[in-house]
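Q: Got a minute? One more chain.
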Amino acid sequence: MNRLFTIIAGITVLLLTIVTSGANAGPVSPTDSLVIRFANRTRLVIYAPDKAGIQALSNYDLNKIVREMGMKLDSVPGGQTAISQDGERFLKDTVLVVTKKKDGFTIVINSKGDTVKTKPASQDSSNRAYAQAKRRRRDGNSFDYGLSIGLDNFIQQSANPTYPEGSYNLRPLGSRYIALSIGAMPTIIGGKHASLKLYYGVEVAWNNFMFEGNKMVEKGATAVAFPDAGRDLQKSKLTVCTIGIPVVPRVVFYNDDGRKVGHIGIGGYANYRLDSYRKIKEADGSKDRRHSDYYLNDLRYGVMTHIGIQSLNFFVKYDLNPLFQPDKGPDVRTITFGIGF
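A: Always. Here it is, folded:
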């Protein structure tokens, strides 16, 4: 339809030329012409002094010509009509060429001469709205789920002759830590490139303390002991299951596009023991599991640090109170480090 309007408009412009020239200078002797025939025997004839005249039609707003021609035809009972206004009236008024760039967009305005205006994307209302919505999502208080895995080890706080060093050593790669968590991280102080947030949540964690050699843990009448099994064991470990609440203020960093690039945080945690058991796997593959408190402290608390790269979170946890009750076991603290997803 637009193409037809363009053709009709072009014809109208040339009819305008014919009518005006006929009134002032007599018959026209064109050197170039274009004849378009339609199925209903309607013929449109475009006259111009040369090819440049026909090509010049691209400078006119043909849709505007067609609209005005339609208005004039509605006011005429029948027969011919012509648009005799100055052709300058139908020149294209304004053409906007919008070019998207990395740092915004450029608007080129053509109107009897070119002017160029550049507007940064950050000043555009739609871009501002998008950035504000993105920042609201970034700084939101939605809950998310996490999985943390790592390794456990003991740090001896003070020597005890009852528990000589080396009597309860752990396998470095066998003493594993795993935790499932749900938490939130609302924004305390927001910023474009950095924000102060507060991470808090609830987690269920398992500390698996796997002993070296054939050592195993036993609950005695007054204290815990780590005797040698006197036989070959595939593995021997003490597992402690706790539920805890971590609270860690974080400083989160963003790039120019508002995407998270990393974070760092220091905070604390408190965990309560839900269960604990000893598990032994014999050389033949048989297993023995025995549940007991093993004179463990029910409450454990400590400090932790978070260092993040994008969506990954590296953590270190250190207990400030002993793993075992006073004078019921070795004076050791638990240190855990790993990665969270």
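A: Residues 9 and 227 are 103 Å apart (CA to CA).
Q: Perfect, thanks.
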